[in-house]
């Protein structure tokens, strides 16, 4: 699940590692690619055959992730309309939202006027 992926990335970065591998999940790959697009990661690749496929993530040299707040959990899901999506750290961070058109950042969701499940905030 995406929560495990985020904690792995944050812990690997704190430990000073250059890269990490995690088991493949389509949602994890989508979130990792979104973090790559927003400049939090250096590279993301899916490697291996279907049964043993892994996601290989290269981290940036400097600590790109300063903080992380998980909003929706399996026990408590939070949904937000497009007008209610808040800016993260006055626009410095990124909110990640699962919409009907896929997982996207908060700015893109506001631009497309889409609401959905608020997954987490990262800065």
TrEMBL record:
GO terms for MF: structural constituent of ribosome
InterPro entries: Ribosomal_uS8, Ribosomal_uS8_CS, Ribosomal_uS8_sf
Ribosomal protein in keyword set: yes
Alphabetical keyword list: Ribonucleoprotein, Ribosomal protein
A Pfam cross-reference name: Ribosomal_S8
Biological process annotations from GO: translation
Family: Belongs to the universal ribosomal protein uS8 family.
Name under which the protein is recorded: Small ribosomal subunit protein uS8
A GO cellular component annotation in the UniProt record: cytoplasm
Ribonucleoprotein in keyword set: yes
